[in-house]
Amino acid sequence: MTRSLSLIYSTFGSEEEARDVAKILLQEKLIACANHFPPIVSQYEYQGEFHEDREFPVLFKTSGKLAKPAGDRLLALHGFETPAILHWKAEASNPGYENDCRGN
């Protein structure tokens, strides 16, 4: 177990934005894969007000060495003023998949 893979989770305000950002990160070789999930309902307080919005979650997969650059680029591309961009290292992975991700 080398823990060389990282996962990045974020949500977007539209499916189009989620796909556009994922495509850029893929083209720039900052991620190996983006998994798009069905829309979710997010409830949160922002600037003292309650909000309930439909959001589009994406799980980005990348190598450990590219996690920070990928997250930084994601932040620069993201349409939300304060987006949730959460990183964590994969505890284990299929060795073949890990090799593929390290090459991104």
UniProtKB/TrEMBL annotation:
SUPFAM superfamilies: GlnB-like. Pfam families: CutA1. It comes from the Bacteria. Gene3D superfamilies: 3.30.70.120. InterPro entries: Ion_tolerance_CutA, N-reg_PII-like_a/b, N-reg_PII/ATP_PRibTrfase_C. Belongs to the CutA family. This is Divalent-cation tolerance protein CutA. It comes from Parasphingorhabdus flavimaris.
